[in-house]
């Protein structure tokens, strides 16, 4: 098999003069996650408060809904990833066509989530929320799985893949910046959730989302196209065995699961924290901007630090910094809004390295899976990684909704009790701090692909591919 990125391999036919990897591919991959996160971040940050304050659904039921939906999505991810791995590539590639086909129904389902019909019964709102949210999550899998898998066929060069990971993070952060800066100004009126504002935000971000998906489709090029391999459809058992033996995959799955859980939890809790604890929903825009700025500060540091120390080593230190400063916030409960944002910004800078490099970790464990089993199964391996993230989302949604109810939050109260306010503060500080500390321990003691071992894996895998051919 030829892995020259200046050629495109499809079966026995070699098509020369394929455009070389460059800025266009990076921008195309960035636009893909920009499209994903225009809705994903809107949902993760504001859907719970939409359900509690607009539909009048209890936070506990919302938590159950999020848990059920994410567990269903996890199954959908693996099913869709396996389905794609058994499909023949088209002339447009193996993954790009699915982004084009499924992005339209995905965005339409996202807008439907924020439709509010006044005067309906509680049962209607519960049923409508359940159906539209499950539908959106399922359709999200049909776009996100091929998009995430596509990185491994845009290029086979580890350095170029790291740049794709960085640009993907840039796309996510740009979406986060826009949504967290502009979103609260649209959806809140006089510090209260507004149904028309939510619907307007869904339409605006939906249009931006579909535009980004189309840009990703047009700008990206799949260069590494595997010849058809009939073994894939008959060896799921071998795949599962290999996945269970893939220690780097298991470790990064665990770290990603709890990192996503923390991200989702913070996103959901921060809305209530700034709305009720700090009485300042405008600060949601500020902290969204700060989070994005910390990532863009970290991005130029990633390449030199990884080149010198390695991905595992750089990311571990970042997670330790995040853990220390979020735990510190818990012991400083009387901070002003600006002081809270300033301290949390240091923690955000720490976990920005994990957030930036996670997709490069995924391509590494996909390579390691190929080394173990001798078959390239990008979609399947990525879908299992996505499964872990969905489980993290499920746990965050469930735990978030249940704990917000448990601390005594009541959407019908004009002013929350002190116990509820203290509980919100704890959920926003000590809980993520403990999670980041756990991720640090996983990376240090359980993730085996340090800088030296990763270099050796690249050599060993190249030799194995050469011998196979």
TrEMBL record:
<feature type="transmembrane region" description="Helical">
    <location>
        <begin position="249"/>
        <end position="274"/>
    </location>
</feature>
<keyword id="KW-1133">Transmembrane helix</keyword>
<feature type="transmembrane region" description="Helical">
    <location>
        <begin position="423"/>
        <end position="447"/>
    </location>
</feature>
<dbReference type="Pfam" id="PF13347">
    <property type="entry name" value="MFS_2"/>
</dbReference>
<feature type="transmembrane region" description="Helical">
    <location>
        <begin position="27"/>
        <end position="48"/>
    </location>
</feature>
<feature type="domain" description="Major facilitator superfamily (MFS) profile">
    <location>
        <begin position="248"/>
        <end position="469"/>
    </location>
</feature>
<dbReference type="GO" id="GO:0005886">
    <property type="term" value="C:plasma membrane"/>
</dbReference>
<dbReference type="GO" id="GO:0006814">
    <property type="term" value="P:sodium ion transport"/>
</dbReference>
<feature type="transmembrane region" description="Helical">
    <location>
        <begin position="280"/>
        <end position="302"/>
    </location>
</feature>
<feature type="transmembrane region" description="Helical">
    <location>
        <begin position="54"/>
        <end position="72"/>
    </location>
</feature>
<dbReference type="InterPro" id="IPR020846">
    <property type="entry name" value="MFS_dom"/>
</dbReference>
<feature type="transmembrane region" description="Helical">
    <location>
        <begin position="339"/>
        <end position="362"/>
    </location>
</feature>
<dbReference type="InterPro" id="IPR039672">
    <property type="entry name" value="MFS_2"/>
</dbReference>
<dbReference type="InterPro" id="IPR036259">
    <property type="entry name" value="MFS_trans_sf"/>
</dbReference>
<keyword id="KW-0472">Membrane</keyword>
<dbReference type="GO" id="GO:0008643">
    <property type="term" value="P:carbohydrate transport"/>
</dbReference>
<feature type="transmembrane region" description="Helical">
    <location>
        <begin position="195"/>
        <end position="216"/>
    </location>
</feature>
<feature type="transmembrane region" description="Helical">
    <location>
        <begin position="123"/>
        <end position="143"/>
    </location>
</feature>
<feature type="transmembrane region" description="Helical">
    <location>
        <begin position="98"/>
        <end position="117"/>
    </location>
</feature>
<feature type="transmembrane region" description="Helical">
    <location>
        <begin position="394"/>
        <end position="411"/>
    </location>
</feature>
<keyword id="KW-0813">Transport</keyword>
<dbReference type="GO" id="GO:0015293">
    <property type="term" value="F:symporter activity"/>
</dbReference>
<protein>
    <submittedName>
        <fullName>MFS transporter</fullName>
    </submittedName>
</protein>
<feature type="transmembrane region" description="Helical">
    <location>
        <begin position="170"/>
        <end position="189"/>
    </location>
</feature>
<feature type="transmembrane region" description="Helical">
    <location>
        <begin position="314"/>
        <end position="333"/>
    </location>
</feature>
<dbReference type="InterPro" id="IPR001927">
    <property type="entry name" value="Na/Gal_symport"/>
</dbReference>
<keyword id="KW-0812">Transmembrane</keyword>
């Amino acid at each position: 098999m030829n892995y020259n990125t200046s050629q495109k391999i499809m079966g026995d036919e070699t098509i020369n003069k394929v455009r070389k990897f460059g800025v266009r591919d990076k921008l195309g991959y960035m636009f893909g996650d920009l499209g994903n996160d225009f809705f994903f971040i809107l949902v993760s940050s504001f859907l719970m408060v939409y359900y509690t304050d607009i539909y009048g659904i209890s936070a506990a039921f919302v938590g159950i809904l999020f848990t059920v939906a994410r567990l269903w999505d996890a199954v959908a991810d693996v099913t869709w990833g396996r389905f794609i791995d058994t499909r023949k590539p088209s002339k447009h590639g193996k993954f790009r066509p699915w982004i084009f086909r499924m992005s339209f129904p995905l965005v339409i389902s996202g807008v439907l989530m924020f439709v509010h019909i006044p005067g309906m019964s509680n049962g209607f709102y519960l049923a409508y929320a359940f159906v539209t949210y499950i539908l959106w999550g399922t359709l999200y899998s049909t776009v996100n799985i091929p998009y995430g898998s596509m990185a491994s066929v845009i290029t086979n060069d580890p350095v170029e893949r790291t740049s794709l990971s960085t640009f993907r993070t840039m796309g996510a952060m740009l979406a986060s910046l826009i949504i967290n800066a502009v979103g609260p100004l649209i959806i809140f009126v006089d510090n209260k959730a507004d149904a028309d504002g939510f619907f307007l935000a869904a339409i605006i971000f939906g249009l931006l989302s579909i535009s980004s998906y189309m840009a990703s489709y047009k700008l990206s090029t799949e260069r590494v196209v595997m010849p058809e391999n009939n073994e894939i459809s008959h060896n799921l058992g071998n795949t599962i065995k290999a996945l269970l033996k893939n220690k780097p995959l298991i470790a990064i799955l665990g770290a990603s699961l709890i990192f996503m859980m923390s991200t989702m939890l913070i996103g959901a809790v921060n809305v209530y924290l700034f709305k009720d604890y700090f009485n300042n929903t405008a600060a949601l825009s500020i902290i969204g901007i700060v989070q994005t700025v910390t990532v863009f500060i970290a991005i130029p540091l990633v390449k030199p630090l990884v080149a010198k120390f390695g991905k595992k080593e750089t990311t571990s230190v970042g997670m330790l910094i995040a853990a220390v400063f979020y735990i510190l916030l818990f012991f400083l409960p009387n901070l002003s809004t600006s002081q809270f944002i300033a301290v949390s910004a240091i923690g955000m800078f720490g976990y920005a390295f994990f957030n930036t490099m996670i997709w490069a970790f995924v391509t590494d464990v996909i390579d390691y899976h190929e080394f173990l089993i001798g078959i390239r199964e990008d979609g399947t391996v990525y879908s299992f990684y996505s499964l872990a993230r969905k489980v993290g989302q499920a746990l965050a949604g469930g735990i978030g909704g249940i704990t917000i109810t448990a601390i005594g939050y009541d959407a019908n109260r004009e002013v929350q009790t002190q116990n509820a306010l203290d509980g919100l503060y704890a959920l926003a500080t000590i809980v993520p701090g403990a999670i980041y500390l756990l991720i640090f321990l996983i990376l240090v003691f359980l993730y085996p692909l340090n800088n030296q071992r990763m270099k050796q894996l690249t050599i060993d895998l190249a030799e194995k591919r050469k011998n196979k051919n």
